[in-house]
Amino acid sequence: MTDAPRKRPRAVRPAEILTAADRGLALKAWLQHHKIGISDFAINAGISRAGMSRYLSGKTDIAEIQQDTADRLLRAMGVSDEDAWALLGIPTTARSTFRSFRPYPLGHGSMPAATEHGALSVRLDAPLFGSVSLPVGAILRIELHNPRYEHQIYRLRDDRLFAVVSGTPMDASGAVLLGGLAGVDFVAR
Q1: Of 119, 131, 127, whose CA–CA distance to 168 is shortest?
Q2: Tens digit of pLDDT for each residue in 30-67?
Q3: Backbone torsions φ then ψ of 129, nearest 5 degrees
Q4: Which region is the signal sequence (predicted)?
Q5: What domains can you pick out in the chain, each with its CATH number?
Q6: What's the Cα-to-Cα distance from 85 to each of 68, 79, 90, rounded to whole Å?
């Protein structure tokens, strides 16, 4: 009779995150919740397995990592900078370097020019898909956080845009609502 392999205990996110060890445990709990292996996450983030172990144990404080490492970690997580700050308890003093340069609203990269009415124009680098399909090169006019339009535009974890009919529940991990599709311009190639 062989012994069944023992399951590792589940990490539990601390109720209050104050220390490097708390932040490491919060990241470990997040990885387990999303069923992401530590080695796979380290590879996706471009971080050594030993480095990940130091972050998860709290030997190296995630809040104090270099900005380029934070950018890779945030991209691998696929959550907005602000959500990661809350999830990992990143102190306000560390947020100027614990951020990514992904496009708004996921990161702190350059935001497309917004008009005075809270609208922005986005040129599609990849086709728009979902309830509306549009080709590369189309320029979307999006009213920020405006539910009155028939189609709502979300930015997915991989930075592609996705359209859904207003009122449709969106349950994609890491999807961020940009706003309502107010119009489309097509430019000749």
Answers
A1: 131
A2: 999 989 999 999 999 999 999 999 999 999 999 999 99
A3: -135, 170
A4: none
A5: 20-94 (1.10.260.40), 119-185 (no CATH)
A6: 16, 10, 5
Q: Count CA atoms within 13 Å of residue 157 on its CB side.
A: 13
For the chain, what percentages of helix, strand and coil (3-state, to nearest 5) are there?
30, 20, 50
d(CA 84, CA 108): 13
The CA–CA distances, whole Å, from 156 to 31, 96, 178 equal 19, 24, 10
Task: Dump pLDDT digits (tens) for 83-105.
Answer: 899 999 999 999 888 988 777 66
Residue 181: φ, ψ to 5°: -75, 105
Q: Which two tokens stand for residue 61?
A: 């404080």
> pTM for the whole thing?
0.59
Residues 6+ positions from 154 with CB-CB distance below 8 Å: 161, 162, 163, 164, 170, 172, 175, 176, 177, 178
Rounded to an integer, what distance in angstroms lies between the CA atom of residue 121 and that of residue 15? 40
Q: Strand pairing of 129-130 and 176-185?
A: unpaired
